[in-house]
Structure formats: C-alpha cells, structure tokens
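During the reporting period the student researcher (J.K.) took over the structure-prediction task from the postdoctoral fellow and processed the backlog of single-chain submissions. One of the processed entries is reproduced below for the supervisory committee.
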Amino acid sequence: MNDYKLAGAGFAFLFAPLYFVTASLLKYELGIGLLFDPPDKALMSDPENLRVFNLVSPLVFLGGLGVALLLNAYAVLRLNVGKEDSSIVGTVRLEARFWNIAVMAVSLMLLVTLVDYFFAENFVYRS
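J.K. obtained the following structure tokens:
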C-alpha cells in the first residue's frame, strides 16, 4: 500500500481523539466551549447516550490511536532477524517518511495525553 495512503488513513483514525483532546483543552483550560458544548449537550441530555459514549469512546479513541500508530509504523519500520554463526542478529531500519512519522508522533502524544487523563481522573487522591 502507498505510504501516503497509510498516512491519510492514520490521520482519519486520529480525528476523533484529536477532536476530543482539542475540545477538552479549549473548554477546560481556556474556557472556550465552541467545540465541546454541542456534543456534550447531546450526550448529557440522555443518560443512555452517555452510558453508550462511556463504553464506546475508549475503544474509538485508543483503538484509533493504536491503528494509526501501527499502520504508519508498518510504513516506516523494517525489521530483519537472521542468524550469524551461533548468534541471532536483529536490525531495525527507520525510513524517513515525513507524513508517516508525523502521524506516529501525533498518535503517541495523544496516547500519552489520554492515558495521563485517565489516571488523573480515576486514581488521583482528592480530599
């Protein structure tokens, strides 16, 4: 598959988590609810919608990030394993393809942000 197509597919998988993180940062850090308020009102108005969102969103966000990362890692990483004498030798080669590496970098940053958010929201002691 073409590397540009993999980068495009990666960006498509990044849309939902990138939207959520951007909307959340704008809302809770800058007080701008333009991106956050419309979906929030639609979800919060019905408890069933909220329950479904809470079940589906981790799969969409983390799954999308994982797929984007794996697709673009496939495009830029080459792994070779072989045997020389009595040793097993492995090499990893990184091919510099800007868009694929950009998708990987954004995926990793969003993944760290969402995991940090998860731990801060669920495991931080509050008095």
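The committee noted the following: The chain has a mean pLDDT of 90.
J.K. will present the remaining backlog at the next meeting.
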